[in-house]
Amino acid sequence: MTIFEMLSDPVLAKILLRAAVVGAAVAWSASVLGVTMVLRRMSMIGDGLAHAGFGALAVATLCGAADLKTEISIPIVIAVSFLLLLMSERGIMGGDAAVAVVSTGMMTAGVLIFSFTTGYTADMCSSLFGSASILTITDNDLYLSLALAAAVMVLFLLFYTKIFSVTFDETFSRAAGVNVWAYKLLTAVLISVTVVVGMDLIGSLMISALVVFPTLTAMRVCRSFGGVTAVAGASSVICFFIGFVISCELALPAGASVVAVDLCVYVVVSVVSAIVNAQKKRRMLQKGGAVS
Amino acid sequence: MALIKCEGVCLGYSNNVAVSGVDLTVERGDYLFIIGENGSGKSTLVKGLLGLLQPIRGKIEYGDGLGRRGVGYLPQKTEVQRDFPASVREVVLSGCISGGFHPIYTRADKLRAHDVMMRLKIHDIEKKSYRELSGGQQQRVLLARALCATKELLLLDEPAAGLDPEATAELYETVGELHRRDGVTIIMVSHDLHALSSEAEHVLRMKTSPVFYGTREEYNEKFGENGKAL
């Protein structure tokens, strides 16, 4: 069945559009938050939180509350993000070691809980690799993802100048009287929500790709922070739609398809920008040679 | 009243005293050079002056209309900034932020940033990306950002780190000009004992506690011109 045939069926169209909106909202939020995470050398926190999300999901399953799994997972993941920030801030453990400990710890807990309760199920698989079908996306996910995107947008509209300053130079911002800790916490909380909401569609093993790739792509083309933020958001949403259509047409899992598109775009943009830069350099050298 | 007055200041982290017994007065229009080897407590003292670290003992007072936020700070370079995609304009403007609600830069902010960039002769590269600049130009941009924060007092922490001799001389010249022409009060921090600028009026030599505090002439008399002889 092609995507146009699906769209002509009202029931299928509703499921399809719902998944598309959830995915686009998550992709945009992840990439925009990703800009400050990647630049602050904290990309791996997204990954660590995604693994924590898997553990949290197992806890939700243990409680027997399959309908409330998102609602149970979000506070757990937020708590983990808080813990990670605290650990790196207080110098208890280096940032990357803390992420490694927490993410593997939560994964282990998740696997053990699943083994004791339901065994390896489709539920567990879909939270790891993203769901094979988009039928699992609920109306709840839709509202949550829209609220998330709105929150990220409000954060950036109201505090853009501060976010730039904190990302570029923490010490300077602190000396200027900015509450750096509050911004770090706020981004960590929003990243946590992003990770949990996106886990079902994209998969917890791959969701951090949405945090990292758009920023890296944008950094190849843009020279300013504002440019990188805008381009990262746009490229993430576009890549999501392309990946989503491909996954529907070829009956592939949505998460892997979207991440594959992100990866391809990154590679192509990197190669093209490297060639353009090399040419620019050569032209400048030639010009310089002619002058001297 | 002096801009900054320290009385018997002790600073440190969790029972580990890094700075002790600092008495210091910075008057308006002063040029103070804080000198000392690595690990002598300079950076800790800087944090104390900026209010990022509360003194364990003693007190730091700000006077003559200078709040703690009136200090324009030029921090040491960080790893994050090496490949940071930000235009010169964005970096300079970010000096205008304060602790309060500041969603967009106002017209006054933009004018101020423009003035500062003109003064430091970086207005022609305002669209360029920070990561593409030379080390000397980057320091100029950070200096401009600090000037956006204040017109009164600049605190420069190892500004010459990683610069070649030519760029270093140029930077010291720019700072000297800000001091002479615009009357900006300067506190310069360096580990380079040779770098004692001829502009400096007062010198504080640190080794956890002050080894010397006085005018540059007295300092040269006591330690010799090269500053090494102890």
Instruction: Give the distance, in angstroms, between the N- and C-terminal Cα atoms of chain B.
Output: 33 Å
Number of strands of chain B: 9
Number of domains of chain A: 1
Number of helices of chain A: 12
Tally of distinct domains of chain B: 2
> What's the CATH class label of the largest domain in chain B?
Alpha Beta
Radius of gyration over C-alpha positions of chain A, nearest whole angstrom = 20 Å
Structural class of chain B: alpha/beta
- Residue runs with pLDDT of under 50 for 5 or more positions of chain A: none
CATH level 3 topology of the largest domain in chain B: Rossmann fold
Strand content of chain A: under 5%
Number of helices of chain B: 6
Please tag this protein with its features.
heterodimer, A: 292 residues, mainly alpha, 12 helices, B: 230 residues, alpha/beta, Rossmann fold, 2 domains, 3-stranded antiparallel β-sheet, 6 helices, 9 strands
Topology, please?
The complex is a heterodimer of chains A (292) and B (230).
Chain A: H1 3-8, H2 10-39, H3 43-62, H4 69-89, H5 95-116, H6 122-129, H7 139-168, H8 170-175, H9 180-202, H10 207-221, H11 225-250, H12 254-291
Helix pairs in contact in A: 2-7, 2-9, 2-10, 2-11, 3-4, 3-5, 3-9, 3-10, 4-5, 4-9, 6-9, 7-9, 10-11, 10-12, 11-12
Chain B: E1 4-13, E2 16-26, E3 31-35, H1 42-50, E4 57-62, E5 71-74, H2 88-93, H3 107-119, H4 135-149, E6 153-157, H5 165-182, E7 185-190, E8 202-207, E9 209-215, H6 216-223
Parallel strand pairs in B: 3-7, 3-8, 5-6, 6-7
Antiparallel strand pairs in B: 1-2, 1-4, 8-9
Would you give an account of this structure?
The complex is a heterodimer of chains A (292) and B (230). Chain A has 292 residues and is an all-alpha fold. Chain A has a single domain, classed as ABC transporter involved in vitamin B12 uptake, BtuC. Helices cover 84% and strands 0% of the residues of chain A. Chain A contains twelve helices and no strands. Chain A has helices at 3-8, 10-39, 43-62, 69-89, 95-116, 122-129, 139-168, 170-175, 180-202, 207-221, 225-250, 254-291. Chain A is globular, with a radius of gyration of 20 Å. Chain B starts with a strand and ends in a 7-residue tail after the last helix. In chain B, the strands form two sheets. A six-stranded mixed β-sheet of chain B has the order 5-6-7-3-8-9, sandwiched between helices. Chain B folds into two domains: 1-66 and 155-162 and 180-230, Rossmann fold, CATH 3.40.50; 76-151, no CATH class. The interface between A and B is medium-sized, with 33 and 37 residues.
